[in-house]
């Protein structure tokens, strides 16, 4: 396998910056966001993530963002391309494109919307893994994909070359511990349990909140790695209100609004995602206040 950066620590599920109309990707804003994240010490960046509105991106936009993003990251952090698709042929094409662009890893959902049963999901990952020379992060978010990658299935998937990681977004600490017990490398995707999943042994997080609070998320990881758990919990108390709020509300527009509020210009969401109401913005400012104190 080509040498690629291993995944660990804080990996930001990047917002996809649009221009003020929401209809065009804004390359300048994307470069600035990548630079700000890397300057804050973030260890990896996910392009075309769920937080990044991948479902609302046009096919050519997904390819463009991966091309531009991997080029601009330029080895300064791990680059992770989200290349999910609903059929194997498209999945292989997207994965090969991202691998050719130099992505360090691919993040892939099971086929979604009336997707296959477990045997079909296994065959899907196996088919992509055989077609690319690039590590794969199995992406488990059953509330949106409609399929749950259980610890039992993940253990089977680990037998496939190129599959070593799972991003689990169930926000279930018991599930995180069960996945860790498989011997695979677990990346937490549930904002409210980020602190505790790292303490439990997750190798890192793929986390939308990193857009909003990159320095704090990196510092949290560093404290936990150093065994300074009292300080980590003190920092988490400042971070937790926002992370619980993100998870309890419409995630994408809330993260994007918070990112803009914290001084990282990512523009609006793309329609039909609606902007926050004034009341929702006020609530968001309240939970961000501890980070600005």
Care to describe what's here?
By secondary structure, the protein is of the alpha/beta class. It has one domain (9-292): TIM Barrel. The chain contains 12 helices and 8 strands. It has helices at residues 27-39, 59-73, 88-100, 118-131, 142-145, 151-157, 173-180, 194-200, 214-225, 229-248, 251-261, 278-292; strands at 9-13, 44-47, 78-82, 105-108, 136-140, 163-168, 185-188, 204-207. An 8-stranded parallel β-barrel has the order 1-2-3-4-5-6-7-8, surrounded by 6 helices. Helix 3 (88-100) packs parallel to helix 4 and helix 11 packs across helix 12. It is globular, with a radius of gyration of 18 Å. The protein starts with 8 loop residues before the first strand and ends with a helix. 46% of the residues are buried. The model has no long low-confidence stretch (mean pLDDT 97).
Q: Any descriptors?
A:
12 helices; alpha/beta; TIM Barrel; 293 residues; 8-stranded parallel β-barrel
Task: Give a short synopsis of this structure.
By secondary structure, the protein is of the alpha/beta class. The protein is 47% helix and 13% strand.
